[in-house]
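Go through this:
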Amino acid sequence: MNDDELAIRQLVETWMAATKAGDLPTVLDLMSEDVIFMTPGAEPFGKAAFAAASESMRNARIDGRSDIREIQILGDWAYLRNHIEMSATLDGGKVMRRSGYTLTILRKEPDGRWRLARDANLLTDQK
């Protein structure tokens, strides 16, 4: 495993840990400024909308597990195919569970760090 693949795996681990800890600034720092997220049934959205949605979930306890299935590095670009299982315990105790695949495009930025540039999140509700 080369340094770039290790860095990408660390990005995913950091994202999961920061999400669980409710550390939104760390999660936002893992994204490029022009990041675009795509989710089923919604218009693509960027970093500001991601931050606003995350703020609305501030009181939820979020936990998750990531299983990276593939990483391909192509110069300063890479893609990542990942399976994620997550749960969010909302105020009042209601638990929301989602799982599924993501296809993520990452870019190595001028500071040498890999950041998420595009993400197709295909997680669906689980009962």
Notes: The longest strand covers residues 61-74. The chain has a mean pLDDT of 95. Residues 33 and 47 are 7 Å apart (CA to CA).
